[in-house]
Amino acid sequence: MSTTNPAELKKTALFEAHQKLGARMVDFGGWQMPVQYTSITDEHKAVREAAGVFDISHMGEFFVRDQTGLDVLNGLLTNDVAKLAMGQGQYTLMLNEQGGVIDDLIVYRTAPEEYFLVVNAAKIDEDRAWIEERLKSFAEAGVFFADRSFFYSALALQGPKALEIARAYLGAGWPEPKRNEITSYSWNCQPILAARTGYTGEDGIELFIPNEVAENFFLGLLDAGKPFGLKPCGLGARDTLRLEACLPLNGNDLSPERTPLEAGLGFFVSLDKAADFPGKDVLVKQKANGVAEKLIAFRLTDKGPPPRPHYAVFQGETKVGEVTSGAPSPTLGYGIGLAYVQSSAAAVGTPLELEVRGARVPVEVIKKPFYKRAV
Amino acid sequence: MSTIPEQLRYAVSHEWIKVEGDTGTVGISDHAQQELSDVVYVDLPKVGAKFAAGSVIAVVESVKAASDIYSPVSGEVIATNADLVKKPELVNSDPYGAAWLFKIKLSAPAEVNALKDAAAYKAQIGE
Fold this sequence. Notes:
The structure holds two protein chains of two kinds.
Chain A: E1 10-11, H1 15-20, E2 24-28, E3 31-36, H2 40-49, E4 51-55, E5 60-66, E6 89-95, E7 101-111, E8 114-119, H3 124-135, E9 143-147, E10 152-158, H4 162-170, E11 182-187, E12 190-195, E13 204-210, H5 211-225, E14 230-233, H6 235-244, H7 280-289, E15 293-300, E16 312-315, E17 318-328, E18 335-342, E19 351-356, E20 359-366
Chain B: E1 9-10, E2 15-20, E3 23-28, H1 30-36, E4 39-43, E5 50-51, E6 56-62, E7 66-70, E8 75-80, H2 83-86, H3 90-93, E9 102-106, H4 118-124
Antiparallel strand pairs in B: 1-2, 2-3, 3-9, 4-6, 5-8, 6-7, 8-9
């Protein structure tokens, strides 16, 4: 339980709507956010079987204009922005000089010289300071940065019915983005952005909406989605959904002490692009020498207590790692989790044990992800 | 709103106890199960183990988190509810009945007087 005074927490433009919908609110990264409306299990199932909508207004929205033709973001982020066609997005990471993760984010190319970045709520201030510091020398060369987090609300509409609902709600004129793409649209004379991305393992879109129309948009979307089985969903279900899909959570599975190679995110790190980004030299060495510890996925092999962050992981009598995320999987019906373990204990099929309240609980390393939707 | 049976006593930490002679039956309140929601696992004490009032005696786990359960009284555990191992969701559906957690032989029966009655517990949880 958090001890922060609720009066000091930030509220999204949807706060009153959440209260009317009967949400239980919690402190998340300095924001009062809905953790659940009815039950985490019900909301989780709604997203896997029909659709759910999450308030993600706490996340940060940055804009970068780069007229240098030099792809300056390649000197800040691990992935290669030069690969982005108009309207495309990519998952990428911002690292410290030691190669540890400051934040993970999605960067979209919204115009030939413009980028839209979506960052984690708790990292908005740190990310902004870090980016501004590195971009200031390019200001005269035509690089512009703006943090517009305060302007945008955001919703994640996720699930097998998400696109049908979006089409029904936004109408025939809505330019539907393809996977990982973003499009802009005018809704009631207000500019909205819709990206075909998400954090649940399902198809869906993430919508960025000016605060002043957010509540109307949200309530209208819930009405339009009702015949499809759409439910408002809280952060509780968001966490179990992303864990089943093995999508990392910054602060749990990612940290300034862990590199993307240790986290198994090498696919999103371009070591062969020309630009040097912070931590690149560390990653080049790590790639050559191999990593000492890896983020693995594991499941309980018997009935037992759900895994939780910080539980110790043992191989025989040797402590080989620590759990970073864990929960009972609503889809699979058994406990699942992610843990950093010594590479020698990281092979799929390796039997390991968790220490839970003094007792040992058997687990097995499994192939990521736990859940993959049928395409 | 939650159910708060008149005949039970309540701890500040949301456990209820029903005292019959020198034996207490303990569970968690309807309010507590609503707050936890989606109970998926219950860790129960060993029969024969002795606990002081206010010490951690069991753990109830929801989808979201593990929550410690405190013994409202001092004594020795004389029975635990094996049904909860297979059906932890009973904590949500029948918190005052089928989802009792354990029975304890009171070593200091006067401790019960320090627990809240239904009205005081109702006031505590703001209902």
